[in-house]
Amino acid sequence: MKRDTRFNPIHLVEALEDRLNRYNRVRFEYSVDVSGDNVNLTVYPDSNSVEDWSLYTKMGYFKRLNWEIRRVYPDLTVNGTMVFPREDVEPIRFYFDNNRIRSADLLRETETYLNNRYGSFPMVNMIMNWISIYMKRIYIIWN
What's the sign of the alpha-carbon dihedral 91, 96, 99, 103? Predict the structure, then answer.
């Protein structure tokens, strides 16, 4: 993972809490851990309502989060997790690299949405399985 040698995790947390402490009427807190070259961002929403947001709204938040990180550290690669207040809600894992947002959890949600809305298509399932395998490989790399 590329990381600027002048990276300051406290500065990133302060920038995010200053510019993205609210989104869609939900407050967020952030913490950053650095382990070697890995930057791990943990996002804490103050409500479980994020789980019920539409896929479009969730992606809007992650695009804005990525943009705010890029504004402060343009070349930073970030592994992240959104942890919900209620423990029975699965966290959302994500990865930002080269201005791209990747998340196996959001990919699964997209697949469910497409299957529920448009039915199951063999080509869609094949493509989604290929992408899912790719995302699992990325997840294994970061852990």
Answer: negative
Helices (H), 1-143: 9-19, 55-72, 104-118, 122-142
* Reported confidence tier of residue 118, pLDDT bands at 50, 70, 90: confident
Q: Are 41 and 53 in contact (CB under 8 A)?
A: no
Question: Which CATH number do you get for residue 52?
Answer: 3.30.300
What residue numbers bound the domain in which 54 lies?
9-101
pTM given for the model: 0.80
Q: How many residues does the chain have?
A: 143
* CA–CA gap between residue 23 and residue 16 (Å, rounded): 12
